Amino acid sequence: MPSTIPTAASGNGWLPKAAAFWRRANAGHGASDKYVTAALFLIPGLALFTLFVMLPMIEAGYYSFFNWNGYGTPTDFVGLRNYEQLIGQKIFHSALWNNVLVIAVSLLVQLPLAMTMALIVAEKMPGSYLFRTIFFLPYILAEIAAGLIWKFIYDGENGLIAAIFGWFGAQAPFLLASREWAFSAILVVLVWKYFGWHMMIFIAGIQNISEEVVEAARMDGATRRQINWYVKIPLLLPTIRLSVFFSVLGSLQLFDLIIPLTGGGPANSSHSVVSYLYYFGMGRMRIGYGSAVGVILFILCVVFAFTYRRTLMRHD
Q1: In CATH, which superfamily holds the domain spanning 81-147+183-311?
Q2: What is the pLDDT of residues 291-301, one digit of tens each?
Q3: Average pLDDT for residues 198-226, to the nearest whole number?
């Protein structure tokens, strides 16, 4: 005797009809659920970005039109005078040039060194992980701590450089007290501090290269140097562009290493734009003037970031 209970298999059963009704009722809800989920994750980030980035920059732009010491409400409106003083300030020109030197050294010394070391230690060989750790450790070290360590190394009286020169019976130079050598000494610390981070980025890119591609080049008779130059480096171009992006933005914001090493001296010769802002704006209670420096730096960073991403990174 046939069963009279409706089943999923029966053509006129209630279960297929209910399932079809449910699909029609919820059609399009998947897309809306995705937007809701995205909004839930974006709102906290946008709130923090607005509170700690956009609002301070808007306030800095407003304060830059005033002669203000940071106390009370700014009332002494000076228009573009702070920007005029900034453009005519030779120390600011020197600080801006120092940032250009940092960018040049980062791109021409730091990144090639990081790439070379990445190609070496990315290979599976004994001790490779140890060397990766050793090269990456300076990046983990706080900038202030790294600056204090190198300040002792550069000390021409009691530091490591004094001991090295003492072995040869020579008088050690005081590099950080020399206008000609102070910023060069900072650049050495900069390369030492950050090349390990870029090395790890390149190692991650190398590990993402298919082993089949490398093996095919090896079977065709390519040497290790040819594999690196004609196979790995071309495939690493997106990673290299990303590393250049981080390097330039980081160079424009250089600050923490300068404070413990030279404090911008001697004779204000080793300032970066950010340390110039700190000493000549905040340190001298000229908040309006410092805000003008901050606005210029913000414009430089934003213009570079948008131009670089729209041109060199548009396909990455």
Answers
A1: MetI-like (1.10.3720.10)
A2: 999 999 999 99
A3: 92
